[in-house]
Input
Amino acid sequence: MLIIDRLKNKINAIVMRRSMANGPEPASPPVPPEDIHIEDKITMLGWYYKEQGRYAQAEAIFKKAIEANPKNSRTYFILGDYYYDRQRYTEAAKVYEQVLTITPGEVEASARLGKCYQIIGRREEARMVLKKALEVNPGSHRACTMLAGWYTDAGRYKEAEAMYKKAIEIQPNDPLMYTDLELCYLRQGKYDEAEFTLKKAIEVNPRKDRLYSALAYVYEKQGKRKLAEGFFERASRLRAETYNPVTRTNYRKLADTVLSSGIRLVCVQYPVRRIGPLEKMLKGIGGIIFVDNESVFKNALKEGRYEDYFIDCFGGDSGHCTPAGNKLLAENIANVILKELQ
Output
């Protein structure tokens, strides 16, 4: 299913839950196609309940899917992800362990199990799981970066650097490999090495905006403000030039779906990035509250460390937020909404 369809389903589920407060029981779930396995049909029903917020029923159905075919690792994955999303990490870990019993060393299951172990304090077991994944899949750049991430978090930077460099050898065209290594260097204050890594990455991927953003941040940390602004500007221009028309169409469809349901829409730009491109994509659609997270995060990064606010660097200039980053993000969103409502 396309991402746009999944998002529309989530929005429709929210609308459905609103109407259920005073309305009748919602319609029966859609009938699944006949040409899929029984466990997949059962899983579809589980997703139906999950999207409605009927979590106990969804969990029971996901377990039934496993009973229908205990050798299908995909059904375990779905239950594990359900537990993970509900922050039930110990239960999620047990399910991901079952996936690895069926498919030893499977990379994504190892990544998720390793993450669960780290969250619940079983850090050394997390390392062993990630190391096993690399042994089983020596040509997997994903396995390399997972183990490198563990070493980085543990402060074992030499081992982390070696793993990131191996990942780059395997997948030299993936900009994320370079930004991960750059972030490892930044944690050590190795700005020259970070700059060299990103310049090399730009030679290989001259049209990847995240690389210019990442290099801008390196210059920002060195106090080279003019260089930083220049590279932030180049990154912004590249994003504007390379936006997929499908992305714009899907964003506008989502906006129409939300607004036509009577829900006020808030559109939040990524941390550090400029709000202009997002406003341009949704130009002409009224009733949208836009949240600009550029200045609030740039100011925070000037005073603090990158890793204080982000756990990775998938966007080049930002990544998934730490608790401190989420707090800053939430406060800024709340302030914008409150200002709109005054």
Notes: The beta strands are 265-268, 288-291.
